[in-house]
Design goal:
It contains twelve helices and no strands. By secondary structure, the chain is an all-alpha fold. The longest helix has 42 residues. The mean pLDDT is 78.
């Protein structure tokens, strides 16, 4: 009985501490995001490059030199991408922005025709009013969402200098993450009582496995999915295949909701051309998703994050509600890490 009460008390204390931490993060989320973004990017870079660094180390190439050589190759690849691919993406984006009023006008006409059909129908006035009110509410929310998204996109463009600074800082941080990872670990463990060290090492290994599975696996999967979707859109002569494939690949990182969110822009743009083009677009994205589920993800993402599907959905919803698209992208591994920390904490104390 005493053991149960002690365990319950520990759970209450941990959950209370976690709740207070979450409230603090939510209240100061903008400042925290500005501080944390370079470290998040650095973690992604470090986990992406570390396997290659370790492989070069087996060839007797010093770790520092390995990282510098990889950075040189990476910079060269970014420059080549900027020269050959970025202009196409910029052209696609500019064309979309230039034609946005035209797209809006076409959808407005389509929307008005649906309203006219409802008003001229033989339904009762109560049903008509209920449907029209729901449509009006939904269209208002959609317009607000589009305006917020465009505003964030413009703000991101205006903050190009900040983004460049964050990326540069992230590369420096990632360099030390990879080069001195063992020193960081040993330094941290030296501050911890000996009886806790084994538990912390095991916890660290679990967290490392979660991050490795998620970052390395999801990035490679997103790249393959994005390329396949872009090629499919090229086959049906769709407009803006590169930028739509890029959106689809990045969105695919978001569990469950990602594939749907990724295909929406492509389907919306195809629908303006013709319903048949929109149908083909849906078929392409669905086919790529089936290939991903059946072959790509099972082969690349070997380990699982250890979360129940319902917990994953809740994590994505919470992340999206409080932190937008970035929250949806990172919420699942964060929830998995929190679960490991809570589980190990209870095991260590009880």
């Amino acid at each position: 009985m005493m053991h149960f009460k002690r365990k319950l008390l520990i759970y209450i204390v941990l959950i209370s501490a976690l709740t207070l931490s979450c409230l603090f993060i939510i209240r100061n989320k903008d400042k925290i995001i500005d501080i944390v973004i370079p470290f998040f990017i650095a973690i992604i870079i470090a986990y992406t490059l570390k396997p290659l660094v370790l492989k070069m180390e087996t060839k007797n190439i010093p770790r520092s030199l390995s990282i510098i050589l990889i950075y040189i190759v990476l910079t060269s690849a970014i420059i080549a991408t900027t020269i050959f691919i970025i202009p196409e993406l910029i052209a696609n984006t500019k064309e979309i922005m230039d034609k946005l009023p035209e797209f809006t006008g076409k959808y407005q006409k389509l929307f008005n025709s649906y309203i006219s059909n409802i008003q001229s129908s033989k339904w009762s006035p109560e049903i008509k009013n209920a449907i029209l009110n729901e449509i009006q509410n939904g269209s208002g929310k959609l317009q607000d969402f589009i305006m917020r998204t465009l505003s964030k996109g413009l703000n991101t463009t205006m903050k190009a200098v900040t983004i460049f600074f964050d990326l540069t800082l992230s590369l420096i941080i990632a360099y030390y993450f990879i080069k001195d990872s063992k020193s960081f670990r040993d330094g941290f463990l030296s501050l911890v009582p000996r009886k806790w060290r084994n538990g912390l090492i095991n916890t660290g290994r679990e967290i490392n496995q979660i991050l490795s599975n998620f970052i390395q696996g999801q990035l490679l999967t997103a790249l393959i999915v994005g390329v396949l979707e872009a090629l499919g859109l090229l086959l049906i002569n769709s407009k803006y295949p590169f930028i739509l494939g890029l959106i689809g690949g990045i969105a695919n990182i978001i569990p469950y909701f990602g594939p749907f969110l990724g295909c929406l822009p492509a389907v919306a743009l195809a629908l303006i051309e013709s319903p048949i083009k929109a149908l083909w677009t849906i078929i392409i994205f669905s086919l790529v998703q089936q290939i991903d589920n059946a072959f790509i993800s099972p082969k690349i993402i070997e380990g699982k994050l250890g979360l129940h599907p319902l917990t994953t959905i809740v994590a994505v919803l919470i992340g999206g509600e409080f932190f937008g698209i970035i929250g949806m992208l990172v919420s699942v591994p964060i929830f998995a890490i929190i679960k490991v920390i809570l589980k190990r904490s209870v095991e260590a104390i009880v």
